[in-house]
């Protein structure tokens, strides 16, 4: 239960995939940006309106809360533990990928759902990991990709049929990983006290690293991107 | 091993080469020695396009779409493996030897010896560490299995059509002309815009257009592009049915081009529109179009590659029916965020102001200072207009009795524009052409794909062809066509050479 409460939003399911690193410290904080994003822009749906336009779609590349918290940033504490392979998941749903950003332990399987009943395709843009691009028609409700996520890498996902649909998979062999929630917050538990490098990645604002010293108990790590 | 007897050594060598050469793509051991030999070939023949470091960034690359392959990322399109997997050596060999039609990648089998091609294949593989990594991992590439095409019944082909509409239509369009709703928003993995193939034009397929080739593409997809693989979602038997259907819509050979568009006399009701059955009374002439790369803002990336023209006439009017494949009717009703450019499609017929007496023709790109031309220009969503032009950017509206009687009626269906231009034969005034029967009248064409950002001088063009309205009593003496044929062949060669010169300018 403890772990579940500590993780945030979309990061929950995936945080659980990692074997908890041994340690008593928790690293939490807020990833923020001074960039004002305003209300997310509406997406122009140009086909399959009945399904893709059922709920209005907005761009997800830059989601900033009123207080400047950055959603969908990935936080990795390097060297805190090795990730164990598991199974991640993502769904094509309502003309978008849910969730928009996932983390995936290296060598994991990936389960891709099509909840829309219409044709999508699943096109990944890996380099270290061979890209894939397969058709996922409406009847193919679930497709499990057994292998092909072996190397740490940020991989963009695209449905070419619906040009606005994209998502990101951050493949990592680190176990201390989280995706920030709507307020930009994250929390990673069970870290052994010590010195680490924290890496933060965001699809628009890029990557920054920061050295941190983790002590027993709660440790606050706030990082700002796009200054 | 050293042989002192040189002739013997040569004979042995020749035998060895012969033996190795027998099946054109027999697998060769791609040793580091081979790769070292391949370097020289590469730097001489390939680096101009593919770049010295193999990253697809040679001096000519910016002008080429598709771009030359980047051998470092190693997204080979036609590797005989499934999407995303490295290519088989034999597939790379085939691409180098045969070339990739519909792109600027030439075939090298007439220039390089087979041994040299293997050398260069060994060399280009070294640009990517992925081949070495595959070896380190102890993995082998799995060839995409094709087998032989099954016998397909009519029902199978009908089923194939339904599967096509379900799985391929979104990109390739209902009629396979590459005009599906998703076609206007596709990108290559490395960022350039890309269009689905027009599956009806078999001569533009890059990787062969046999039913087996079509099966291979549909089954495995094309690495680095939006073209997905289908073996995850369909049974091989279903993919064969789709290939069987595509087999029925593909025209494999490029139609022959004729230098002269023969106009046929008609009596009675004139064609009412571009889809009128009367159009079929005249033979169609296929006219190639190329990007305008000669003057002003040059255009290296046209999407339109040809137009079919038919001409009819009666005692008063000429009816010119033009048909060209265009992946979209633009401006788009639903423009997308990815490529917001949304200019209107357009088409122009170019004619001289007076019929030249001999072989003299105005400058083919919009006429010249002393030899003006007129343009009949149709713009989607706008009016048809007559322009008088004395140079590529020097066109001005032109008024006159024939000009005001000019009309154009166009429809767009499943990736194809069909337009009917109608105008009185008589020019009826200064500076406008009177079209006479039995005379060779120079005629040229321009087409704009607005969704590709084409406007003004950025467009696809043809060189001059001839329009000949066949007199009601057939011409008996045809001396001209032979002479004209020669002249035009010269003109085409010139244009092609010019195109190549520009493309390879810095090579």
Q: Number of helix segments of chain A?
A: 3
Low-confidence runs of chain A: 1-20
Any guess at the CATH architecture of the largest domain in chain B?
Sandwich
**CATH class call of the largest domain in chain A:** Mainly Beta
Portion of residues within helices of chain A: under 10%
Question: Ends of chain B: how far apart?
Answer: 40 Å
Number of strands of chain A: 17
How much is the average pLDDT of chain A?
A: 90
CATH architecture classification of the largest domain in chain A: Sandwich
- The fraction of residues in strands of chain A falls at 35-45%
Secondary-structure element string of chain B: HHHHHHHHHHEEEEEEEEEHEEEEEH
User: What's the domain count of chain B?
Assistant: 4
- The computed structural class of chain A is mainly beta
Give a short account of the largest sheet of chain B. 14 strands, mixed
Bin the helical content of chain B: 25-40%
Tally of contiguous helical segments of chain B:
12
Architecture overview:
The complex is a heterodimer of chains A (227) and B (507). By secondary structure, chain A is mainly β. Chain A is 6% helix and 41% strand. Chain A has three helices and 17 strands. Chain A has helices spanning 2-6, 11-15, 49-52, and strands at residues 25-32, 74-78, 87-93, 96-98, 101-105, 109-114, 120-124, 133-136, 142-145, 153-158, 166-172, 177-179, 185-191, 194-202, 206-214, 218-220, 223-224. In chain A, strands 5-11-10-7-8 form a five-stranded mixed beta sheet. In chain A, strands 1, 13, 16 and 17 form a four-stranded mixed beta sheet that branches. Chain A is globular, with a radius of gyration of 18 Å. Chain B has four domains: 23-136, Cytochrome c-like domain (Cytochrome Bc1 Complex, Chain D, domain 2), CATH 1.10.760.10; 154-249, Cytochrome Bc1 Complex, Chain D, domain 2; 260-469, Immunoglobulin-like (Sandwich), CATH 2.60.40.1190; 477-507. Chain B is built from twelve helices and 14 strands. Chain B has helices spanning 6-21, 32-45, 47-50, 89-98, 114-125, 130-136, 154-167, 169-172, 211-220, 236-249, 401-405, 480-503, and strands spanning 260-265, 285-288, 290-291, 306-313, 317-325, 346-352, 373-379, 385-389, 395-397, 407-413, 416-424, 440-448, 460-461, 465-469. In chain B, strands 1, 2, 3, 4, 5, 6, 7, 8, 9, 10, 11, 12, 13 and 14 form a 14-stranded mixed beta sheet that branches. In chain B, helix 4 crosses helix 5 and helix 7 crosses helix 10. Residues 1-24 and 500-507 of chain B have low confidence and may be disordered. The interface between A and B is medium-sized, with 28 and 33 residues.
């Amino acid at each position: 239960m403890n772990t579940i409460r500590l993780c945030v939003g979309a990061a929950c399911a995936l945080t659980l995939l990692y074997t908890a690193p041994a340690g008593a410290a928790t690293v939490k904080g807020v990833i923020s940006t001074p960039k004002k994003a305003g209300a997310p822009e509406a997406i122009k749906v140009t086909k399959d309106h009945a399904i893709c336009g059922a709920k209005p779609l907005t761009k997800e590349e830059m989601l900033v809360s009123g207080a400047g918290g950055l959603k969908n940033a990935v936080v990795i504490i390097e060297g805190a533990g090795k990730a164990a392979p598991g199974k991640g998941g993502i769904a094509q749903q309502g003309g978008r990928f849910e969730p928009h950003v996932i983390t995936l332990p290296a060598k994991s399987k990936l389960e891709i759902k099509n909840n829309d009943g219409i044709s999508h395709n699943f096109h990944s843009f890996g380099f270290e990991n061979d890209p894939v691009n397969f058709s996922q028609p409406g009847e193919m409700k679930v497709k499990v990709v057994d292998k092909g996520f072996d190397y740490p890498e940020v991989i963009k996902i695209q449905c070419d049929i619906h040009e606005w649909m994209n998502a990101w998979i951050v493949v990592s062999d680190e176990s201390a990983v989280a995706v920030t929630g709507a307020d930009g917050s994250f929390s990673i538990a069970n870290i052994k006290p010590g010195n680490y490098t924290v890496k933060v990645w965001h699809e628009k604002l890029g990557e920054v690293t920061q050295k941190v010293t983790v002590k027993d108990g709660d440790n606050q790590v706030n990082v700002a991107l796009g200054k | 091993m050293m042989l002192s007897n040189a002739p013997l050594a040569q004979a042995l060598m020749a035998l060895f080469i012969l033996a190795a050469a027998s099946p054109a793509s027999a697998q060769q051991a791609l040793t580091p020695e081979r790769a070292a030999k391949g370097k020289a070939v590469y730097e001489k023949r390939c680096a101009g396009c593919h770049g010295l470091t193999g990253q697809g960034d040679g001096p000519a690359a910016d002008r080429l779409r598709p771009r030359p392959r980047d051998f470092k990322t190693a997204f080979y399109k036609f590797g005989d493996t499934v999407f995303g997997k490295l290519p088989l050596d034999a597939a790379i060999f085939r691409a180098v030897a045969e070339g990739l039609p519909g792109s600027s990648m030439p075939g090298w089998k007439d220039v390089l010896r087979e041994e040299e091609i293997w050398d260069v294949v060994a060399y280009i593989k070294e640009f990517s560490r992925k081949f070495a990594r595959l070896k380190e991992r102890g993995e082998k590439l799995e060839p995409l299995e094709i087998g032989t095409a099954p016998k397909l019944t009519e029902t199978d082909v009908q089923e194939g059509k339904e599967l096509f509409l379900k799985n391929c239509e979104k990109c390739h369009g209902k009629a396979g002309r590459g005009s599906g709703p998703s076609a206007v928003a596709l990108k290559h993995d490395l960022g350039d815009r890309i269009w689905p193939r027009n599956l009806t034009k078999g001569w533009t397929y890059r990787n062969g257009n046999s039913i087996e080739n079509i099966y291979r593409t549909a089954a495995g997809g094309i690495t680095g592009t939006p073209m997905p693989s289908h073996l995850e979602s369909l049974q091989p038997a279903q993919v064969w049915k789709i290939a069987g259907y595509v087999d029925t819509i593909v025209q494999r050979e490029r139609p022959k081009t004729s230098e002269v568009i023969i106009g046929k006399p008609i009596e009675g009701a004139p064609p009412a529109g571009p889809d009128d059955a009367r159009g079929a009374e005249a033979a169609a002439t296929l006219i190639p179009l190329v990007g305008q790369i000669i003057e002003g803002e040059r255009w290296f990336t046209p999407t339109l590659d040809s137009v079919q023209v038919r001409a009819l006439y009666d005692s008063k009017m000429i009816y010119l029916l033009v048909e060209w494949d265009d992946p979209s009717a633009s401006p788009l009703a639903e423009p997308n965020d990815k490529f917001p450019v949304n200019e209107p499609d357009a088409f122009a017929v170019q004619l001289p102001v007076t019929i030249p007496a001999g072989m003299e023709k105005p400058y083919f790109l919009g006429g010249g200072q002393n030899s003006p031309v007129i343009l009949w220009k149709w713009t989607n969503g706008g009016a048809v207009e007559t322009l008088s032009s004395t140079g590529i950017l020097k066109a001005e509206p032109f008024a006159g009795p024939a000009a005001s009687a000019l009309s154009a009626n166009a429809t767009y269906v499943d990736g194809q524009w069909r337009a009917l231009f109608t105008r009185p034969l008589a020019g009826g005034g200064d500076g406008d052409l009177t079209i006479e029967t039995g005379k060779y009248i120079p005629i040229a064409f321009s087409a704009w794909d607005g969704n590709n950002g084409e406007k003004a001088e950025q467009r696809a063009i043809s060189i001059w062809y001839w329009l000949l309205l066949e007199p009601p009593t057939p011409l008996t003496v045809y001396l001209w066509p032979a002479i004209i044929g020669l002249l035009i062949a010269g003109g085409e060669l010139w244009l092609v050479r010019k195109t190549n010169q520009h493309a390879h300018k810095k090579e």
